[in-house]
Write a structure and sequence with these properties.
Elements lengths: L3 H13 L11 H5 L33 E8 L4 E8 L6 E5 L2 H4 L2 H6 L1 H5 L2 H8 L15 H13 L6 E5 L7 H23 L7 E5 L2 H12 L6 E5 L8 H14 L4 E8 L3 H13 L5 E8 L2 H19 L7
Parallel strand pairs: 3-4, 3-5, 5-6, 6-7, 7-8
Antiparallel strand pairs: 1-2, 2-4
Helix pairs in contact: 6-12, 8-9, 9-10, 10-11
Length: 323
């Protein structure tokens, strides 16, 4: 397990090696490969033929977020922090950021979905369909776009509260179990209060890249706590597929829940994610696999990353089938 101070030291060392901290991507391996790109916190550049991202209310929605400092988890030797987007009376989703945001520290990390992943804009557009290609930065197939718009027409987006904590760099199951205890005892009660969700409202877990990996570990370790599990471009390697599939099968036997994996054609974890999906199928673990166009980088986070996460949890946490 690597703490925040270690990550900050790593980032500084990377800078000395001519890798600017402004170019931190979603994942350490993207940096090592030179695949991280400096991106502004605003709209991603649309893909070919994509309409511009919608503007308006989403541009000023940051004012609705609540930022909370929390008692720390003794196992991780640092304080906690969460940024919450309220939605009174709705289910709650804990959304975990990637390693790039981890290296930004407590404040920058906890603001990842708000400032770096375009969650407000995705939220606003889901409430005002039809969606267009530009809402995904161009990273959407036409059949998927049609499916989403038909689903939104039949059942409008109702919304979820989203809690975005500073996420530690946790790679293994035991560390995830320790952090899950802190989530349950400290973070979730505070996030429910700030987000306006009831104590018994369904709770989902999701994340991107590093956060996607941890979301899977948390969801599989605590089937009693999380009612739905999602992971976008989770940092799973090919030699870990059997391990994750076994965890998923054990969790499914304890409590069946909606499970979804999302990747993209340019995601360097795609091979392992496809293999994990196949291993889940062989173990009779129901799940959804969605593969979109696009890279493992910020423009994808701000397009399919946030939008697909919101659609999934808005439906399954209310008992509707995923789209």
């Amino acid at each position: 397990m690597i703490g925040r101070r270690t990550l900050l030291g790593w980032a500084a060392a990377s800078s000395a090696a001519a890798v600017s901290t402004a170019v931190l991507g979603c994942d350490r391996e993207s940096l090592a490969r030179g695949e991280g790109r400096a991106e502004p916190s605003g709209a991603p550049a649309p893909g070919p033929g994509a309409a511009p991202l919608a503007t308006g209310a989403a541009e000023v929605a940051a004012s609705r977020w609540r930022e909370l400092d929390l008692d720390g988890n003794a196992s991780f030797h640092e304080p906690g922090r969460v940024t919450v987007r309220p939605e009174p009376g709705a289910p709650l989703v804990v959304a975990l950021h990637g390693a790039g945001e981890n290296a930004k520290g407590l404040v920058g990390g906890s603001r990842g979905f708000r400032d770096d992943y375009g969650l407000d804009r995705a939220y606003a557009r889901l409430g005002a369909p039809p969606l267009v290609e530009g809402d995904f930065g161009g990273f959407v197939r036409r059949d998927r776009l049609s499916t989403l718009n038909a689903a939104l027409a039949a059942r409008p987006f109702a919304g979820v509260a989203v809690a975005c904590p500073f996420t530690p760099y946790v790679q293994e199951l035991e560390g995830a179990k320790r952090w899950a205890g802190w989530l349950e005892e400290v973070l979730v009660p505070r996030a429910r209060e700030a987000g306006g969700t009831a104590a018994d409202a369904p709770l989902g877990i999701d994340g991107i890249s590093m956060g996607g990996r941890l979301a899977l570990l948390l969801g599989f370790a605590r089937p009693d706590l999380f009612a739905a599990v999602g992971a976008s471009q989770p940092a799973v390697k090919p030699d870990e597929v059997r391990y994750f599939a076994n965890l998923a099968a054990k969790a499914h036997a304890t409590r069946p829940r909606p499970l979804r994996l999302v990747s993209s054609q340019g995601d360097f974890y795609l091979e392992a994610i496809r293999a994990l999906s196949e291993a889940l199928r062989r173990r009779d673990v129901p799940h959804q696999l969605l593969v979109t166009p696009g890279p493992h980088d910020y423009p994808w986070n701000r397009g399919p990353g946030s939008t697909e996460m919101l659609v999934f949890h808005d439906r399954v946490l209310r008992g509707a089938p995923p789209v």
